[in-house]
Prior knowledge:
7-stranded mixed β-sheet, alpha/beta, elongated
Amino acid sequence: MNEAIRYSIIIPVYNEEAVIHETHRRLTQVMESLAEPYELLFVNDGSQDRTEEIITELKEADPHVKLLDFSRNFGHQIAITAGMDHALGDAIVIIDADLQDPPELIPQMIEKWKEGYEVVYAKRSKRKGETLFKKWTAALFYRTLRALTEVNIPLDTGDFRLIDRKVAEAMKGIREKNRFVRGLVSWVGFRQTAIEYVRDERFAGETKYPLKKMLRFSMDGITSFSYKPLKLATYLGFFISFASFLYLLVSLGERLFTTSTVAGWTSLIACVLLLNGVILIILGILGEYVGRIYDETKNRPLYILRNRPNVEQREQQEVKQGVRP
């Protein structure tokens, strides 16, 4: 392991004891076939099961395995960020431990990288083992995000991708708290290309992204790259105000020029509820943005580590790469 690391594989994990051994086996099989120096950088995001213990055992038996251990759960996107911060490789691959994204696709990504592409992302052509609701909401999210943002974030892609060292260094300068990594990778630019694949079912265990987390993740993606929701709130406010003014003119006309008036309070209550609902929606949108501003002003670290593996090796390699003087 004295050779300079060529490839870094970042694997964020949270309560993945059921899949760690199989993930390690398949990744090792793929990386050994490349016959170049590599590291498997597991980022333990505050797991409550035996995930840390299993990775520690693997680390003792396999010198390619390294472990970043968070002091608590900081979130999937932060775990990816920590992996990029500590990766040594010239090319860095991000892949989840659940094996829905096949490790066997990594050599194809590396071929694209050697052709000169600095970001190679995997685009899902089919998603196995997922409900129609999950597929429909995922498709809706990506297309809504595309419509709301000016950044070209590819459709139907996750975090499974290869990035060049230059991209990783650029990402280190972006320290915003509510992170949407795949969007940030698109934002920094560089030469990017896609490879298509069929996403498999989860090998074992349960999904770590229930509906609540997916909604939160969607809000992070939209608010990180677009202020169009604020504009939409403004347009909606003008539209409701204009419609209310027209309704007022109609009511006055009926009262002054006709003998019939609207009986009861139904229409009035309906208007009041509608307007109050619109106001609350607009306040909610404002709150999402203000909350993110508040997070940024606190200037807390993105994550806290229990350990910092191979710090000296990383610094020596950065000197060789010209990153560190």
